[in-house]
C-alpha cells in the first residue's frame, strides 16, 4: 500500500531563504518591475475581484490581519501582523505569509513567506502609483523613514519610474546610514539629510514610510511644494498617520480601496466623504490622474489584498522550473475521498 | 556571517503524515477525548474570545473560508474549503489547514494540516454537545451519512459519551460498507440499515452528516421520537440543510455562534428570531440544557473558529517532545529588524 502523499496532496512552499534566492535569481530590479506589471494588470481588471476590507484582530500591542481576495480562478490571502514595538525587541514589525488556492477545487496551490515579498509588493505598488501620478520628468525622490521598507521603495522607483537620486531622512540617523550603505553601488545617487526640511529640497517625489502607531505630522503643508507626488505608505491602521491634514486637504488623493483607506489611511483625518479617486480607474484609463504640473498628488497607500494576490501569482509562475521551493504535505488525499478515516487507520 | 534562519524565524509545521502519526501516538479515542476537553474549557471562557462569522469567498462550485479567533494570548485561524463536487473528481470535499500565532508579537507559532484535524474536532464538538444534551442513559446512535466524517463521529461519541451501538445509513450502500469495515474491531456494535426509518429505530442519538449542497429533508418529523438528541452537522452553509423544518420547530435548538448559525445552520429555515440557546451557556452551567426525558434536543452544528483554535492548541502541546513536526523557515528574521534589505542583499 502506498502511504506516501500523492501529488495532489502536495503544496509548493517558498521559504524566506528561497524567496531571497528567487530575488537574486531574477534580479531585484527586474522582479520589482515584473511585480509592478502584475499589479497594474490586476488593477485594470479590478471590478472582477472579490473585495473585502482586511479582517483585523487587535490587541493593545498590535494587530493580526487576514487579507483575502479572489479573481474567480485563483483565491489568495495574506496573514500579516503589525507590532510597532517588535523592533525594540529585535523582532520584525511586520511579518507575513500567503497562500493561493484553486477556486474550482479549493485546494491550495502555493504557500509562501510574505515578509520579504510584502516589502517587494509594497515598493512595486508605490512605483505603480508614482508612474501614473508623478510628473514624467521626476528624477529625485525624498525617502522619509529609512527602515525596513526604504531600500525597496527606492529601488522600485528607480526601476519603474527612472528615479536617479534619493534623498534620505530618518529621526534615527543610524537608519539613514544603514539605508545609504545598502544602496551603495546600486546606481542611485544618495544624499543623506538631517531634517524633513532638508530632505524634500528639490524632490519631485516624497515617500513616507514611518512606523509609529500614533498621529504624526512628518510632513506639514508649508514643506510641500507645487507639483510634488507623495506616496504615504507608513500610515496603514487606525490612529496611524504621517501627514498633516492640510497636506491631505491640498492634494488630489488617490487610494486603493476606499472602504479600507477611510479607516486606515491618511484620509482617516478627513470627513467621511472627502473626495478620493480610486487608483485602478486611473490605471485603467477611465479617469485622468495628474491634471497639471502644479498639482500635488497623494497616493494614500495602505496595502490591499489584490496587491498580495498579484505578488503571489508572480511567485507561483517565477518558481516554475527552479528548485526554489519544496513540497509540503498539507492536504489529506485518501484514495477514496470518503475514506479519510481509513487513511488514518492504515497509517498506524 | 550566519545566513541560516534563526530559531525565531522557524515555525513548527505538522503535515498530514505527521498528524496521522500523532493520532496513533496518542490513540484516537484519547485524542478525541482530549480535544473535546479543550473545546469544553474554551467554551467555558467563550466571552473573552474575539468572535466573528467566518469570512467566505463563494464561487459556483464551492466556498473557501477563513475562520479567525483569538483569546488575547493566542490567535488562530483555519483555511477551509467546501466543494461538494470534489468527491466525484476523487478529491476531498473539505480540506483545511490552520495557524496559531502569539498575540504579543504576531509571530506564527504553529502551522498544521487541518483536513484530518477538522474531522477530529468536528467529532469532538458533537461529543461535547451530546454529553451535555443527550439523555445520560443513551447507548445507541444512528449515523446518517456514512462519509468521511462518520467514523470519527461514532468514535468520539463512544469515547466521550459511552455509546456502544452505532446504526448506519447512507443513500449509497457502499459508504455504509466502508464505515462498517473501518469500525470493525474498535469495540462498537455496528448495525447496517437500509432506510432512514430503519436507522433511527431505538436510537437515543441521531447524528446527520450528509454533504449535498441543497435543502434536504433527511429527517422528517414523524421519524423523530421523544427524548432523542440530534447532532445535525452536515448542513453548514447557506442553502444546505438536513432536517425538515418541523423537526427543528419541535426541538430545543442549541447552537455555537448564533450570527453564523442563522446563516448556515438548520435554523436558516426558521424565522430570524427563532429561539436558540448558545451551547457555551449550557457548558458553563449558566443555562439548563435538556429539561426533560421527552424533550427533543438539537445541536445545530456548523463548526466555529473557537473549536479549531482548541484543536490547534491541543496539537501545539501534543507535538512537544515528539518528532512529529518539522520547522518551516516562514518568517524573515534579520539581525537588525530594520535591515530586511541587507538580509536579502547578503543572501546573494
TrEMBL record, chains A, B:
Recorded hits in InterPro entries, A to Z, give:
NAD(P)-bd_dom_sf, ODC_Mu_crystall, ODC_N
Q: Which Pfam families match?
A: OCD_Mu_crystall
Lineage, top-rank taxon, reads Bacteria
Q: Which PANTHER family match?
A: KETIMINE REDUCTASE MU-CRYSTALLIN
Q: What is this protein called?
A: Ornithine cyclodeaminase
Organism of provenance:
Cognatiyoonia koreensis
Amino acid at each position: 500500500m502506498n502511504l506516501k502523499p500523492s501529488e495532489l496532496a502536495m503544496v509548493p512552499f517558498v521559504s524566506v531563504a528561497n524567496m531571497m534566492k528567487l530575488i537574486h535569481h531574477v534580479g531585484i530590479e527586474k522582479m520589482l518591475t515584473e511585480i509592478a506589471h502584475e499589479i497594474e494588470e490586476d488593477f485594470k481588471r479590478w471590478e472582477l475581484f472579490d473585495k473585502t476590507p482586511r479582517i483585523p484582530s487587535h490587541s493593545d500591542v498590535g494587530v493580526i490581519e487576514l487579507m483575502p481576495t479572489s479573481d474567480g480562478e485563483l483565491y489568495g490571502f495574506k496573514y500579516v501582523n503589525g507590532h510597532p514595538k517588535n523592533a525594540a525587541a529585535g523582532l520584525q514589525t511586520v511579518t507575513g505569509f500567503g497562500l493561493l488556492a484553486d477556486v474550482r477545487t479549493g485546494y491550495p496551490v502555493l504557500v509562501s513567506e510574505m515578509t520579504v515579498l510584502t516589502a517587494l509588493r509594497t515598493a512595486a505598488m508605490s512605483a505603480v502609483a508614482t508612474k501614473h501620478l508623478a510628473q514624467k520628468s521626476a528624477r529625485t525622490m525624498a525617502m522619509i523613514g529609512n527602515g525596513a521598507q526604504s531600500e525597496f521603495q527606492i529601488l522600485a522607483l528607480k526601476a519603474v519610474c527612472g528615479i536617479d537620486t534619493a534623498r534620505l531622512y530618518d529621526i534615527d540617523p543610524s537608519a539613514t546610514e544603514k539605508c545609504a550603505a545598502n544602496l551603495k553601488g546600486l546606481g542611485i545617487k544618495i544624499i543623506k539629510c538631517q531634517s524633513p526640511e532638508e530632505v524634500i529640497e528639490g524632490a519631485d517625489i516624497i515617500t513616507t514610510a514611518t512606523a509609529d502607531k500614533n498621529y504624526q505630522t512628518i510632513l506639514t503643508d508649508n514643506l510641500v511644494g507645487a507639483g510634488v507626488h507623495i506616496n504615504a505608505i507608513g500610515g496603514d491602521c487606525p490612529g496611524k498617520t504621517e501627514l498633516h491634514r492640510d497636506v491631505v486637504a491640498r492634494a488630489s488623493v488617490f487610494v486603493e480601496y476606499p472602504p479600507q483607506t477611510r479607516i486606515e489611511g491618511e484620509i482617516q483625518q478627513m470627513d467621511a466623504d472627502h473626495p478620493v479617486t480610486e487608483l485602478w480607474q486611473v490605471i485603467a484609463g477611465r479617469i485622468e490622474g495628474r491634471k497639471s504640473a502644479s498639482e500635488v498628488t497623494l497616493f494614500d497607500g495602505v496595502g490591499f489584498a489584490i496587491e498580495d494576490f498579484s505578488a503571489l501569482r508572480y511567485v507561483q509562475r517565477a518558481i516554475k522550473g527552479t528548485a526554489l521551493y519544496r513540497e509540503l504535505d498539507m492536504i489529506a488525499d485518501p484514495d477514496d475521498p470518503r475514506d479519510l478515516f481509513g487513511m488514518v487507520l492504515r497509517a498506524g
